[in-house]
Amino acid sequence: MEFTWLKKGGKRECLLFFAGWGMDPAPFLDIPLIESDLCMVDDYRQLAVVDLKPFAGYERLHLIGWSMGVWVAAHLLTEQRHCFASLTAIGGTLRPIDGKQGIPPENYQAMLADFGEDILQGFYENMFDEKPQLERFLAHRPQRSLEQLAEEMEAFQEAYERFGPGADIYTRKIITSRDRIFSGRNQMRAWGKGNGVVRQWPHFPFYGLDGWQDILPG
Questions:
Q1: Pairing between strand 172-176 and 86-90?
Q2: CA–CA separation, 121 vs 47, rounded Å?
Q3: Is-above-0.85 flag for pTM?
């Protein structure tokens, strides 16, 4: 796993952001953030214990898990959930490879079996429903090799099969109803009726927001 400070300016609050599969900091660098610092976690080829000591000086620490990061954060931080002022899941579930509550296993396996640049491009396109946002992402796409991304997909699948569904540590669940990666229906089914906040957002919602504050509780 990689930990990268996207913003570190001595603010009183900090966001710890677990990104989705295939990401690195590049697509997130210009998303507005005013009142907080931000540390991003990505690359789940090898999961590791999360040391929260670097965040001990903050008055409030917030967790955001997105996409596959929802499961990773839940799996790794179950015993440390009390350290966070809020814990938000967005566009993902605790059963990420699942026919009714995540990405159908046959879809996941087909993507892994035939993985290449065409598959990756299709995945990027499915993260968005507006062309300008897709173009913005492609101009700042993650700088990771196809080999690394295939390894991460395989490692994530193995970790989920080994450890099973994540614990529900989240105090806020945002369902991205226009999602073509984790379908809105599966997200709703995963969290249960009335347990999520529905937003008409695509899988990658960040470019349609005013900033990170739109994800945090009001």
A1: parallel
A2: 26
A3: yes
